[in-house]
Amino acid sequence: MSIHKAVYFRVEKYHAGESWSLEDSSPIIHSDTFFGGLAWSYRELYGNDEVGAFIEICKRRALLFSSLYPCKIGGTSLYPLPLNFSIDIRGLFKGRPWAVSGEVFRKLIRGTSIKELRDSLKLHGGVLYIADEEPVELRVMKSYKNVRDRLMGSTDLWRLSYYVLGDGCGLRLLYRVIEPKEVSEKRLMSALRLLSENGLGGERSIGLGGSSEPPIIGEESIEEPKDAELFTTLSLYHPTRDEVEKYADREIYYELVERGGFRDYRAGGRRNRAVRMFREGSVFPAVSEYPGSMADVGGAYKYGIAYPVRVIA
To answer: N or C end of the chain: which has fewer CB within 10 A?
Structure first.
């Protein structure tokens, strides 16, 4: 059984970019967005030299992060659906769930089939739960904004989407320290607290993503099947060229997502070069212990290290 550090952020509402448009928001704060925010925290607290060292630590896979999923703090946590089960689910439910509960996830990775679980499952808000589980309450909201161009005398109406979490809910991060000698958890905790205050995700200037309370630190256990030859990832995954070659002619289950974004204004405020990554829940042969890479997007880095969990096909 593997033990994972868990960080729970008491966030009420947040925006997580999923495309170039503010009208779209994801219920998931992807690992590359979280990494960018954490690197900002390191720079604010410790300076440019320390943020460079932090990036090098991540490149060497001494520290792994998952993406952030909604959760009921002290209760139900959500995980990505391992995509090798997506075809079976499509035949039993209308639409494919974007997440599953921790209890469902643990059954699936150990090889329990969807057909075996069918009578004990329920679909609520796009998430697959065991029938008696308390669901994580979240809903998407749309806010209309009016921008006036004073030079041209024109106005423009646009729409912002964001998620609102129910009482007792928040966002949950998993992380693992692979090389304890290289990682100062005391500094990491300070950076997480600053990030919680500043806010997670986008549109923080209008009050989204922030929390007035420090994050809660805990643990979650996952019993991974020892004889499994596949893994699913809890973060975005940008494979190395060598890993891609090893996947050739082998069965994989994946979705691609294009990631872009902007740099901090002190780094020029420029738009990053877009890069494609494998989405959370994608399933691959276990060809290396900690697969993935940091994607160079032109003087900046996107976090693309997989957060692997073994899964039986």
So the answer is: N
